[in-house]
Amino acid sequence: MSKLVDFPVTARWPAAHPERIQLYSLNTPNGVKASIMLEETGLPYEPHLVDIINNESHTAEFLALNPNGKIPAIIDPDGPGGEPLALFESGAILLYLADKTGQFIPADAARRWETIQWVFFQMASIGPMFGQVGFFNKFAGKSYEDKRPLQRYVDESKRLLGVLDARLEGRDWIMGDDYTIADIATLGWVNNLVTFYEARELVAFDSFGNVSAWLERGLARPAVQRGLTIPGRS
Q1: Confidence (pTM)
Q2: Strand bridging mode 85-88 / 73-76
C-alpha cells in the first residue's frame, strides 16, 4: 500500500496535512480550475505554490508527478480503493473531483457528456487561443514587428467568444440553470483575457453581452473569488 511520502514531490513540497488532497499549482488560468473546484466542493486540501517562473515545474520532484512539467497537479491520499492517486491535466482533475463528490456534473448521462464536451472546448480551443493572444499582446510577442500572428489569434479568440456567447443565449451557465465544471474550466481563461492579458478592447469583449454577464455571475461566487488567488504568487 503506497503512502503520500512515497511520492518524490512531497520531499520538495512537504505535506503539513497528509490526509488532505495535495494541490501543486499556481493561480494561472489553468491552475485556478483546480483551486476553484476544490473551493466549490469543500474538499479539504493543501495548496503548494509551484513557481513556474523559476522553473519549479521542471524539477525532478515535480516531473515525477507530471512528466509534462505543467501545473496543476494533485495527489488525493484517499483515491479509488483508498489508495493515493496522483493526477495531472486540469480537465482530468475537474472530472475526477466532480465524480469523487458528485458535484458540478450532471448525473444524467446525456447531459454529463454535453458538459464534458464544453470542458474539452475550453481545453482545445479557448485556452490555447487566448494564451496566444496573451503572448503576442503582453509578453515577448508584443515586440514582433510582424503583427499577423497577433491578428490571427485575436480573430480566432473573437470567433470563440462568439461561440460561447451564442451558447449562453438564454442561459445563466453553459449548461443552463446548472453551474458545472464547464463554467469552472472556462471562467479563469475569460477573466484572464480581459484582465491580465489586457485584451478587453482588442477582442471587443463588451460586444459579447452574454459572455460578459456570465463572467460577472461567475466572479461573484465566493468560491471563485477565493480560488482565483490560490496558490498566490509570493
Answers
A1: 0.96
A2: antiparallel
In the CATH scheme, what architecture does the domain 4-103 have? 3-Layer(aba) Sandwich (3.40)
Count the Cβ atoms, other than its own, within 10 Å of residue 55: 11
Rounded to whole angstroms, the Cα distance separating 211 from 62 reads 36
DSSP 227: H
Q: What is the pLDDT of residues 97-128, one digit of tens each?
A: 999 999 999 999 999 999 999 999 999 999 99
Residue 5 has pLDDT above 80, yes or no: yes
CA–CA dist 104, 29 (Å, integer): 19
Q: Which amino acid is at 136?
A: F
Beta strands in the chain (DSSP E): 21-25, 45-49, 73-76, 85-88
Q: Which residue has the cell 446525456?
A: 110
Q: Which residues contact 3 (CB under 8 A, 6 or more apart)?
A: 84
Topology alike, domains 4-103 and 109-222: no
User: Which of helix, strand or coil describes residue 176?
Assistant: strand
Cell of 155: 480573430
Please report, for the chain, the start and end positions of each structural domain, with discontinuous segments joined by +: 4-103, 109-222
Task: Find where cell 482533475 sits.
Answer: 93
CATH number corresponding to 109-222: 1.20.1050.10
At residue 49, what are phi and psi to the nearest 5 degrees? -75, 120
